[in-house]
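Pasting as-is:
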Amino acid sequence: MSARKKADATLMPDTGLSGEDEQRTPAEVAGYIADMVLELRNMAKRNEFEFLAYLLEMSFQEAFDLSQSKKK
């Protein structure tokens, strides 16, 4: 099973998000994505993957902004 299919098939940690099973607001989903991307960005920075860290930072900023704008 590919990593993507495996991730889609399992519960995401701490949030209970599981595909279509749970109804979450767009702000909650965006916040969860921001948290996960931030962890990946930190891993990339620790390993000096500069361009990957940059791309993940941009993804984090977008997800964070969406999580904040959807709360209003």
